[in-house]
Amino acid sequence: MRGGRRTKQWWWRWRSNPLRRREDVLEAWLVLAVWALVSVGGTLAGVVAARAADETFARQRADREPVRAVVLADVPRATGARGSVYADRALAKVRWTAADGSLRTGSTLVEAGREAGSAVTVWTNRQGDVTTRPPGPSDAAVEAGLLGAGAALALSGLVIGAGATVRWRLDRRRIAGWGTEWAMVGPQWGHKTG
């Protein structure tokens, strides 16, 4: 080897070779198909999932609105674990006026220690029922991006797993073929010592 350079053989699996087996060609096409599906299919799945999630969040922002409500009973101080997300919030009964003018009653999380009669803001849907606050545009974009990335990774993992399974089966066929060939050739290599 002059100068330590190594010659690369591009597309070696498809080249004509007397030692090339059918399984080698199948494996070459399989690897190409897996990488194409991972790159194109994963990207497409991620984009579709992110857009669907973004549309869902936009619909939630359009369907939900904040409403003033009144706490019906004193809310005790929270007894949750320190550092918990809900340590400073407690479930309370509230009353609000729906868009159709009817009085509604329901339960929601409010700040701990609120007194009866204090005003709070609750989120309601088009039917006037209490629901969760919709994510803001920036939170929705981040969550949609994460869901898209998760969809892309899930599809990629599924395709790579299926490809690995097929390659494993091709390896089993190759090993079985080698065993058959060795059974034919091996006895001809008798011990010839002189």
From TrEMBL:
Entry's transmembrane regions: 144-166
Protein name: Membrane protein SCJ1.26
Organism in which the protein naturally occurs: Streptomyces aquilus
The entry's keywords: Membrane, Transmembrane, Transmembrane helix
UniProt cross-references to InterPro entries, sorted A to Z: MT1774/Rv1733c-like
